[in-house]
Design a protein that fits this description.
The complex is a heterotetramer, with two copies of chain A (77 residues) and two copies of chain B (130 residues). Chain A is of the alpha+beta class. Helix content of chain A is 22%, strand content 16%. Chain A has one domain: Roll (Ubiquitin-like (UB roll)), CATH 3.10.20. Chain A has two helices and four strands; from the N terminus they run βααβββ. In chain A, strand 2 and strand 3 form a beta hairpin. Chain B has one domain: Molybdopterin biosynthesis MoaE subunit (Aldehyde Oxidoreductase, domain 3, Alpha-Beta Complex), CATH 3.90.1170. Chain B has three helices and eight strands; from the N terminus they run βαβββαβββαβ. The longest helix of chain B has 18 residues. The N and C termini of chain B lie far apart (42 Å). The chains are: A alpha+beta (77), B alpha+beta (130).
């Protein structure tokens, strides 16, 4: 798990490891993360989620070792 | 389509970028956009914006956008520079250049790229108050 | 709105133009367009275009368009250079720059100006066959 | 009268003086010009007309000494 932008401040760390049952979805991971880092719960609906370098949706099935990033809406430019 | 992507803390050197342009004799239009840091964010005066990027993912997302662009418009080349780190007010954070045969497609492709970038490329701003 | 208009046989010096830009701290967007002579006109290969202008009337018509532009968009500055005389293939005949607070208005104003110029400003092309 | 672009070639001269009755319109002048320079007649509908530095339409009433320009569609850029 990596947190970016102010999600890093809300989580209190730039990255962490999370154990979750086999075959869990990204949605499931999101719930687990919000439980562990309650400050991230308020941004739950606007959270963008990526696995590796690609955006994935809530139905995405996670595999062992996936690097997941959570971050707020992007603001480039 | 030729592409060139730079994500760097270095100031954007427009003149050098213009000098390095090499366009085919069939190309008739160049559109450049510069996004420049303004003196305020909302109601607050600022002195700079600190840009953070998930750089590896940003590169991948720009690549996907360049692919999409090349499928929609007959563009010869896209060059894009995003400065990250602290960018002071009145200095550019973004430079985009699109070279195409005709004007309309160059404008459309350039605007498409910026619009999509603002949705998908993982770069964030932290305004530094004045 | 600041305006700067150049109609000249001199080659367009993009780097010098970029260097002379002075924009207010409230401005966030710069759109530049370069119109470049292409290797063909219709089906015919060419080596250059010879541009003729009714220069005094062209200046007046550009002035009217700048006025119209300044009434429609909050643009800080417009600079426009039209090269006349013989412009070889792969060299720019037109350079336009619009500086505005935000991106959308800079793009819209720049495209408006070019569209209107192509209707109203008395400049004509004579292609020189290859 | 000034002719621009290929109108100059069609007229065979860059400029000329034309006498026309007092209070005549630009349309009337256009007819007189096409009579005197028949090669310009073919482009009659696409001719752009200016008095001094301004475009004027066919109803424009000419005054003594007006400098009139006729030219084909413009092609800047």
């Amino acid at each position: 798990m990596k947190f970016w932008s102010y999600f890093r401040d809300h989580a209190g760390c730039p990255e962490t490891e999370i154990e979750i049952e086999n075959g869990a979805t990204l949605a499931k991971l999101h719930e687990a993360v919000c439980e562990q880092f309650p400050k991230l719960d308020g941004s739950k609906n606007s959270t963008l989620k990526a696995v590796g370098l690609e955006y994935e949706d809530d139905e995405f099935i996670l595999s062992d070792g996936d690097e997941v990033s959570f971050f707020p809406p992007v603001q480039g430019g | 389509m030729k592409t060139e992507l730079t994500i760097s803390t270095e100031p954007i050197d427009e003149a050098a970028l213009a000098k390095r342009r090499a366009m085919d004799d069939g190309m008739g239009a160049v559109v450049c956009f510069l996004g420049v840091v303004r003196e305020s964010e909302g109601d607050d005066a600022i002195i700079a914006i600190d840009y953070e990027a998930h750089e590896e993912m940003a590169r991948r997302q720009f690549e996907l956008l360049f692919d999409e662009l090349s499928q929609s418009w007959p563009v010869e080349s896209v060059r894009l520079v995003h400065r990250i780190g602290i960018v002071p007010v009145n200095e550019p954070s973004l430079w985009v250049e699109v070279v195409a045969p005709h004007r309309a497609e160059a404008f459309d492709a350039c605007q498409f790229l910026i619009d999509e970038m603002k949705q998908k490329v993982p770069i964030w701003k932290k305004p530094l108050p004045a």
